[in-house]
Amino acid sequence: MPKQATYEEILSDLKQKKYAAAYLLMGEEAFYIDSLSDYFQNNVLGENEREFNLSVLYGKETDITTVINSAKRYPMMAEHQVVIVKEAQHIKNWDSLQYYLQKPLKSTILVLCYKYGTPDKRKKWVQEITKGGVVFESPKLRDYEISGWIKKHIQNKGMKADEKAIALLSEFLGSDLSKIVNELNKLSLVLPKGTAISPDLIEKNIGISKDFNVFELQAALINKDVMKANRIIRYFSENKKTNPSTVVLSQLFNFFSNLMIYHYLSDKSPASVASELKINPYFTKDYAKAAQSFGAWKTMNIISYLRDADARTKGFQNPSTDEGEILKELIYKILH
Description:
Blueprint lengths: L6 H9 L6 E6 L2 H14 L6 H4 E5 L5 H8 L9 E6 L10 H6 L5 E8 L8 H9 L1 E4 L8 H11 L6 H11 L3 H14 L8 H7 L8 H9 L3 H13 L6 H19 L6 H8 L6 H10 L2 H18 L9 H13 L1
Parallel strand pairs: 1-4, 1-5, 2-3, 3-4
Helix pairs in contact: 1-2, 7-8, 11-12, 12-17, 13-15, 13-16, 16-17
């Protein structure tokens, strides 16, 4: 196993019972760290071995001396013992760990779950764990990577989904991978065999409206459908908890900012547009249509309207105005 390992490589080795003396699982994205931690906790030891050979410590409640002493214990009636330190980022004074890592106990599997960041890689203990153990870094996915991640996860689970359904999921579930996986697991339980995840199924089981969402609002704006756009805004105003103005404005701002870039692209082929805007090729047609509805100057003005609306919903300029009224006024300015 390489010292800097991927999630898949670590999981593959664990399933083959190939263990390292120490693991440092770190990074902004907690999903993979939690997933590997769960595997260490539930699968490395047999059920009868866990009672005496599994230690789960928490960074807020322990210290490095306790971690080292736990790692130095020998297993009882088992080949290995597993020591998992969750929330390890809360531990102070790591320096003494370097001495244990120089000569770790071969029967101990030490797992450090350092979430929402990374330790100073210049520290001796980090260098020692890199030399003799396994380091995994889990970076936070960027917003434009979420759709692709959802699509891949759905495929890995043997399911299918159309592009609109994936877009709905990525927009309304955000970048919390644990939340996304939980919702996809719910859908897998009710998904008829051989069928794809659809907007209808999402609306029924997750509560995301297939007709009243930001993507439908964008489509109404692109098509200059005044009645539909106002109908959606009215729905947003009546359902603020599920459609907060900050999310609506953020999505529209991203779309029109990308549209401004689109106007000045020399190569407007779907592949080139998808690459430049970092979007799914499925959505490039929306920008081609939007460019016909809104020229570059109008797009620039719309971006200004969006900034103004965002400031007003946050209490600047005219804090007494209702968010729904601000959105209605915004839609009017965009369409006229």
